[in-house]
Amino acid sequence: MKRILTIVIAMLAFAASAQKVEARFTESKFIKASGKTIEAEGNLKLFSTDKMELRYSKPAGDYFIIDGKTVSTSIRGKKSTVDTEKNAAIRAHRNTLMNCVNGDWKQAATDNNAETSVTEKGANKVVTLRAKKTAPRGYSRITITYRKSDNIPVELVFEEFNGTVTTYKISNIVKK
C-alpha cells in the first residue's frame, strides 16, 4: 500500500504543469527495516490533471494508473483497483498531493500539520514539507524539486515515518 501511495505522489506531481506530459522516471526505495534498496524505472504519462499513468519497464508489466477517483495497479502480477472516495487514507494522500502539485503547499502543510520551506537552487525551486509530529503512517518529509521554468518536477523524495525513503528522478520530459 505504501508503494501505491508513493507512486501516486510521483504521478500527481506532474499535474503541476496542467499540460500533457510524457517522461522517463527512475525509482529508488531504501527500506530501513531490511537495509535493502529496490530500484525500478519506466514511463510516465500525464493526460490531464486527473488522468495519469506509470508503466514500469523494470519490473516489466507493473503499472499504476489514476483515472479520476480510481487508482488501478498491477504490482508483480497482483492487480488492484481502489475507489479513493471509499478509501479515506488514499483520499487524504491524494488531496495532499493535489495541493502540493497545484502549488497550494500551504494548504497541504495545514492538512498534514507540517512546516514548509521553499528555496531556490539554480534553475530549480525546492519545496519541502516537514511533519511537526510523528504518526503511525505517512510521510515525515516530502521534498519536491521543480524546474522554475515550467514548474515540472525533476526529483521527488518521500521519507516515511518508518525510515523508508523513496526517490523519483524524472527525465526526458516532453510536453505534448
Describe it for me?
It contains 3 helices and 11 strands. By secondary structure, it is of the alpha+beta class. An 11-stranded antiparallel β-sheet has the order 6-5-4-3-2-1-11-10-9-8-7, covered by helices on one side. About 5% of the residues have low confidence. α1 packs parallel to α2 and α2 packs antiparallel against α3. A hairpin with a 4-residue loop joins β1 and β2. The protein has one domain: outer membrane lipoprotein receptor (LolB), chain A, CATH 2.50.20.
Please provide the ordered H/E string of secondary-structure elements.
HEEEEEEHHEEEEE
Strand content: over 45%
Radius of gyration: 15 Å
So what's the overall shape?
globular
First-to-last CA distance: 31 Å
CATH superfamily: Lipoprotein localisation LolA/LolB/LppX
From the 3D structure, determine the CATH topology.
outer membrane lipoprotein receptor (LolB), chain A
Helix content: 10-25%
Low confidence ranges:
7-17
Report the CATH C-level class. Answer: Mainly Beta
How are the strands of the largest sheet arranged?
A: 6-5-4-3-2-1-11-10-9-8-7
Describe the oligomeric state of these chains in a short phrase.
Answer: single chain
Total beta strands: 11
